[in-house]
Amino acid sequence: MAYDHDAEDILKPLVFRLHESVPEAVREVLLERGWSEFDEQEQDEADWNLYWQNSPFRMTDHRSIKPWQRLNHYPETVRITRKDYLARHLKRMKGIYGPSLYEFSPMAFIMPNDYVKFIAEYTKERQSQGRKPSYWICKPVGLSRGRGILIFQDIKNFVYDCMVIVQKYISNPLLISGYKWDLRLYVCVTSFCPLTVYTYEEGLVRFATEKFDLGSLDNVYAHLTNTSINKFGASYKKNKEGIGRGCKWTFSKFRSYLRSHEVDDLLLWRRIHNIVMLTLLAITPSVPLTSNCFELFGFDILIDDTFKPWLLEVNYSPALRLDCSIDRTVKKRLLHDIIELLNYKQTDTLRENKGAGTKASYAGRTHIPLTTPGENATDDAPDFLASRQESECTATSAVQSLLEVTGGTFKKEAIGMEKMARTHPRKTRTSQLRERMNRPKTSSQSKAVSKSNQLSGARHPAHASVQVTHWLPTTELCNYKLTIPPYFLSTKDKRPFPRVGDFVLIFPFNDAALEASRNGIDVKSIIQEIHKLMNKQLPPGQQKVKKRKDYLTFR
Ligand code: ADP
């Protein structure tokens, strides 16, 4: 017990800093975990461990980051989170790597620039005999939550007064009991160099609240799946046949539904993961080299009636507001798992810094490099509208990634989409202790403690020694599970954790992919690896038969 006693003596809560627009759930979770909130009056700029805001940080924030601090955004990720930028990047990638890989995003035209091209495509379709004219969806690039969206078939109904993208409307969505739905998939990038990507196994299925009907294109409750729209629909609170009340399911419920209809959904998830990787690769080389960041994205995926997943958009700061019990189930756990993924942990130097906390005491603090550098309102649409604006962060960061990843053989069994043993050391002994000791019994108590600390002028020193590590040891060591804290492992063996809570590592997926993303990013080699992976995943000919059968069981 001497260890516990010592630890109690030195362990201080981790400190979070939130911008005022950040949803309350983030604060709730961090307080539940025993963290304390940054006090600008009392504490020094260096005294926080995690800074969370819904908008991008300035490049100066990135440059002045301390080794024990983390920011919840990378610079330049707006390149995939603004509709027009995403369309442009995916078009470019399709041009380089071919449509067989990059055919997951509906054909898109950016207006007004692409007006002539759009008219040419529209006219070509109209003139081709026996071909049913497409439906189109027009979306303002600067808006979110379904605002300003127009669906049309005849160009005479197409009007716009701002910058928009016109996208082919997926007019054959896979319906559940006649209702349209899409998937909000959470993706966390813990590092762009080397690229390290996790997808969250739990998520939201977002339903339209009136039955899908191509005869009523202006009925937003039938064609849009945004919660911000559907919660105002007349049927929102009604018990809809096959769907229930409200407009959301969890992925767990969705999986059970698929399995009850004898649909093997593994292939579907693999295809979705490929979409995530291929999308992120479009911007990975242009993300400035910055350390100590992570990014949570919300990928909106629509599945059509041939089981093909389509990427509709990528959300910056996906909505973390808790609007209903399903949000509470999914998003709170998601937030807990994000903190787990960041893996704050103490090192021995915390002991050396015992008593630190005043502005003066931070001056002489030892900066410890991280072993690795490392995430939007009601609708699961962005809380942050600036995500739709041109990012001001264009300069390449002077902050050099302190990352040094070395390693031997990638253990196949440590990765993969099959269910794995939970090898993540959920909490290191010290961080576990610290969170436990600092965890309030109730959130009201926590607020009271936090308040009383503020009133009494107590300071929460930031943890100069908090390090973040994401790389798992080799499988042999994984087998020790929780008995060996990861920071005892040599850097040589560092590997990303294959699983953290419900986060599953999807990139890197093999040695070659790891190697190609390590020292600068070799996109071409990675794409080749993804291509091979896709070929293995999809035995030719098998998919069509299955898809048709699955489709039929769904109707
Ligand atoms: P916003 O940022 O305004 O939410 P989205 O691109 O997410 O814009 O579109 C809103 C909704 O419109 C989606 O959730 C989906 O239901 C529907 N939608 C968008 N694009 C398409 C498309 N190409 N085909 C079919 N439905 C679409």
UniProtKB/TrEMBL annotation:
Example GO molecular function: tubulin-glutamic acid ligase activity
- Can you supply a Gene Ontology BP term from the record? microtubule cytoskeleton organization
Q: Which GO terms describe its cellular component?
A: ciliary basal body
Region listing for Disordered, in residue ranges: 420-461
Q: Where is the composition biased (Polar residues)?
A: 440-456
Where does the source fall among the domains of life?
Eukaryota
This chain's protein is named Putative tubulin polyglutamylase TTLL2
